[in-house]
Amino acid sequence: MEQAAETDAAPDATGWTPQAVLWDMDGTLVDTEPYWIDAEYALAAEFGATWSHEHAMRLVGNDLLSSGRYMREELGLPLTAEEIVERLLDGVVGRVRGEVPWRPGARELLAELRAEGVPCALVTMSYTRFVEPILDQLPDDTFDVVVTGDQVRHGKPHPEPYLTAAAALGVEPSDCLAVEDSATGATSGEAAGCTVLVVPNHVEVPAGPGRVFLSSLVDLVGRPSHEWSLAGSARG
Q1: Residue 170 CB neighbour total at 10 angstroms
Q2: Domain final residue pick, 70, 98, 126
């Protein structure tokens, strides 16, 4: 994508080093967005409504209840937002139990951070019952903290999810790197005071004062975190 190409170079070895890494999940660690989109199309079809790629892209990165409200209002579904969320979850949980579609470099980078002793948190707007089968595929000590969408009052783009994770780790948000793939998630991390590493996937993400871009997590695999200076970012 164009905005990634503008700053798409591996960070140099000078400057700031993250004290903790806070990870988005959908689209960042795992490419589960197609699972969600398939579930959205299936739910719309069940009620004789028409869904579209444009609608689906508007939901990328949103908290699930916001997505449920959007579907109810746009499609006129005779369900509450909560019921819509549970129906979508029924679809995607079954898919992810069969196969976890990892993003390139995700598991390798998590393992390297764990070996270095760098604290990591998972900060996702997916609910616990969807997150659990994914975590089951990783070593138990991969994440020191897990923040899910059903644990916070305000989802992304509000800063609460990232503030919650940083506080649980005992680290200042300004010392954290948030890894995201969507504008909604990047806004959340930025608003919390984190530097945001954006690895775009399904949607474009605009440049911002606290954001740096890479085309793939693979670009960081094999590089110790103290060499991730992310010198192109601006913090506070």
Answers
A1: 11
A2: 98
Could you list the active site residues? 24
Q: What is the DSSP string of 191-213?
A: HHT-EEEE---SS-----TTEEE
Q: What is the pLDDT of residues 163-191, one digit of tens each?
A: 999 999 999 999 999 999 999 999 999 99
What domain count does the chain have? 2
Cβ atoms 232, 212 nearer than 8 A: yes
Statement to judge: residues 86 and 174 lie in one domain: no
The domain boundary, picked from 98, 116, 136, lies at 98
234 located within any domain: no
pTM above 0.85, yes or no: no
pLDDT in tens, 72-104: 999 999 999 999 999 999 988 989 998 999 999
Sequence-ordered alpha helix ranges (H) in 60-159: 64-75, 81-98, 106-116, 128-135
Q: How far apart are CA 125 and CA 128, in angstroms?
A: 9
Q: In CATH, what number is assigned to the domain containing residue 108?
A: 3.40.50.1000
For 148, residues 6+ apart whose C-beta sits below 8 A from its C-beta are 122, 124, 125, 126, 127, 128, 131
**Residue 151 DSSP symbol:** G
